[in-house]
Every structure is written in C-alpha cells, then in structure tokens.
C-alpha cells in the first residue's frame, strides 16, 4: 500500500479550527487547508507574549493552490472569533516555514504582499523560496535523468515531469528576511532543530512542551522520501539520522503537531513505528533484488498499481530505499558494462551484492 498522500477526509471535521495551549499558556490554533485535491494540511497560528514582546506567528502557509489561500484567510477569521480580537495577515509578526515543499510555503505568493511579518526559513531551503524558478529548472532536469535511469518508459516521462511542475508553477519567488542558523536556531520562545531528509532544510520548531514538526513525523503516514541524487541533504540516510537526533532533543514534549494528520501524543513510539517500517521496506527491496531490477520495477513490486502524482512519489520512495542500500555496499549495478559504454542515461539494473 502506498501511504504517501493523505486520503480526503470528512470535510466538515477537517474545516474546523482546533485550539491548543502549551504549558506557558501560549495560544495555538491549527488552521486546516485543502492544499491539493485529496490532500489536507495545516498551518499554525501561535499567539504568545515573550519577555514583554507579543509574537503573532504563522507556521507554514499552505500551497497557494485551489482553495488553500481562502482556507487560510477563513482560519484567521475563525481565530478572531474564538479570541474576540479580529486578526488578519497584517497582524502577524513572523512567518516561519518548516521546510521547502510547496504545500507548506506556496501560499507565500498570496500572503507576502498582505503582511509586514518577518519571514524565516532554514538556509538549505532558502533558494526554494527566493530562487524558485531556478530551482524548479535544475531539479526537473535531475528528475528527468532519474526517471530514465529508473526505467520509466519514455512515453510516460513527460507526463510525470508535467505533474511535478504543475503545482509549483503558480508560485513566485519572495524575499526572505532571516534564516534560522543565522539566528542561532532560536526566535524568542521558539527553538528550531534541523532535521534533513524529507527536505534538505527541514526544521522542527519547539515551543516549550509543544512541537511543530511539519512533515518530519506524521501520525498516520510515513513521510515521503526521495533520493539524495535529486537534492542534497535529502535521502533515507539523512532522514533516519534526523529521527535519532530528534529523539534525543525532544524530551519533555507533551504534544506534537504535524503538517498533516492528527496530533501525536507519544512521539517516541511513533518514531519507533516509522523506523520499523523503513527497516521492513529495506528488507523487501533487498529480497526483490536477488534478481536484477530497475527502480521502476522495485516501485511496482512495493506499491502495486498507483496513478497520477502517486506514480512519481512511489518511484522516488523506491529510489530512496535503493539508494540507501547501494550507498552502504549492499547492492551492485548489474548492467555496469552498458552504463560505462553509454554516453546518455539509460535504465540501471540493481541486484544484491554478494561478496566473493
């Protein structure tokens, strides 16, 4: 089963703004957004005073696609009604982006002209926001090579590249005011931890006993993985290392709020579940590669028949696991002679490496 996209859930329940508090009394509001057809996500609004300074912080902005911007504005309106104090984009003091995936920052094209809030992101995702058009071109070129080497037929590659670009071409680059490492990974009461893997510049953000984790850890699905061959500081190895770093950093947490799915009340147990799933998936890939296969064949064996954007996600997920095993000397390229002789990318066959 492919568990990369959240299924469309009951709209009435999803559209309700949820309210939380941390141990210090900060008000936290979960704003539901339909970021893509069939995929719900969340932005978070935090109202907290720290050392006499009021912070009105928005974490992530949605995709900017379809109804996402309207849902963001509706969520802010609902917060005003809940608190008795009208609140809009122009009341924000800061916008913090957890990571450079379009369903978390794409709304900036709508938000940025409507607020004076200071915008921050991690250094490794800075170009996603400020030089988006360049990054899209570079990654699309790498993705085209990946699809060929994965064994995707030529007739399907153009469709997958078009799907990759479709939800991203609406975004226009914006100015970023600060980066997290430059601030020492702290802004007022908010602490950041760099957790690369799902995205190069992914951070989780802590406010005392509450953690905002973007897509790093989710309660109902395992966050999507792609090969580091496409983007440095992604890849399954970085992701699993980041889970270990988070485990040591996140003591004393009461609540973890993700960019999708329901809140997590027992973070260590969820970390164990995600690590176990990837260990199982790695073993499945190794077993398949007793015989030579392309990444496309591995993907089909892992996830079966998938459609639309999930085809691309499944290929990247399979590619991340193959890459992890290959990097660690457990796989070999079976058709190395063909690869050496070809001047152009061609499908690569991987098989389990047996030492002589």
List the helices and strands and how they pair.
Layout: H1 11-14, E1 18-21, E2 27-36, E3 39-50, E4 53-59, H2 68-83, E5 94-96, H3 102-105, H4 108-111, E6 118-121, H5 126-130, H6 132-150, H7 154-166, E7 178-179, E8 186-187, E9 190-194, E10 203-207, E11 210-212, H8 236-249, E12 255-257, H9 267-288, H10 295-303, H11 309-327, E13 331-333, H12 336-341, E14 350-352
Helix pairs in contact: 6-7, 8-9, 9-11, 10-11
The tally of helices reads: 12
Helix content: 25-40%
Please mark out the parts with pLDDT under 50 across 5 or more consecutive residues, or reply none. Answer: 1-13
What characteristic shape results from the CA principal axes?
Answer: globular
Strand content: 15-25%
Q: What structural category do the secondary elements indicate?
A: alpha/beta
For the termini, the CA-CA separation is 36 Å
Rg:
21 Å
Q: Provide the CATH superfamily of one domain.
A: Ribonuclease Z/Hydroxyacylglutathione hydrolase-like
Descriptive notes:
It is a single chain. By secondary structure, the protein is α/β, with parallel strands linked by helices. It has a domain at 11-151 and 163-266: Ribonuclease Z/Hydroxyacylglutathione hydrolase-like (Metallo-beta-lactamase, Chain A, 4-Layer Sandwich), CATH 3.60.15.10. It contains twelve helices and 14 strands. Strands 1-2-3-4-5-6-7 form a seven-stranded mixed sheet, with helices on one face. Strand 8 (186-187) and strand 9 (190-194) form a beta hairpin. The radius of gyration is 21 Å and the shape is globular. The chain starts with 10 loop residues before the first helix and ends with a strand. 40% of the residues are buried.
């Amino acid at each position: 089963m492919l568990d990369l996209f959240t299924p469309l859930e009951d709209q009435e329940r999803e559209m309700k703004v949820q309210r939380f508090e941390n141990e210090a009394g900060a008000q936290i509001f979960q704003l539901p957004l339909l970021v893509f057809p069939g995929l719900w996500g969340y932005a978070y609004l935090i109202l907290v005073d720290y050392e006499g300074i009021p912070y009105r912080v928005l974490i992530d902005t949605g995709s900017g696609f379809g109804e996402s911007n309207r849902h963001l504005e509706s969520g802010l309106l609902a917060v005003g009604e809940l608190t008795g104090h009208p609140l809009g984009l122009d009341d924000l003091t800061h916008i913090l982006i957890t990571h450079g995936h379009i369903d978390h920052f794409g709304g900036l094209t709508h938000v940025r002209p409507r607020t004076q809030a200071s915008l921050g992101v991690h250094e490794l995702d800075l170009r996603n926001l400020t030089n988006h058009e360049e990054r899209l071109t570079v990654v699309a070129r790498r993705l085209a090579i990946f699809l060929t080497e994965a064994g995707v037929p030529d007739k399907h590659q153009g469709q997958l590249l078009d799907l990759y670009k479709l939800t991203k071409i609406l975004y226009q680059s914006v100015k970023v005011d600060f980066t997290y490492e430059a601030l020492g990974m702290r802004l007022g009461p908010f602490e950041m931890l760099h957790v690369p893997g799902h995205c190069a510049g992914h951070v989780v953000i802590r406010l005392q006993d509450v953690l905002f984790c973007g897509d790093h850890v989710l309660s109902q699905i395992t966050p999507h993985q792609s090969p580091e061959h496409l983007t440095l500081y992604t890849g399954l190895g970085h992701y699993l290392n980041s889970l270990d770093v988070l485990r040591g950093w996140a003591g004393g947490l009461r609540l973890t709020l993700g960019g999708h799915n329901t809140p997590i009340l027992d973070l260590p147990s969820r970390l164990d579940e995600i690590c176990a799933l990837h260990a199982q998936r790695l073993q499945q890939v190794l077993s398949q590669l007793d015989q030579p296969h392309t990444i496309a064949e591995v993907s089909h064996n892992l996830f079966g028949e998938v459609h639309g954007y999930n085809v691309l996600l499944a290929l990247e997920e399979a590619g991340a696991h193959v890459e992890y095993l290959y990097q660690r000397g457990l796989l070999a390229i079976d058709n190395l002679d063909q690869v050496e002789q070809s001047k152009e990318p061609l499908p690569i066959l991987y098989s389990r490496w047996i030492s002589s």
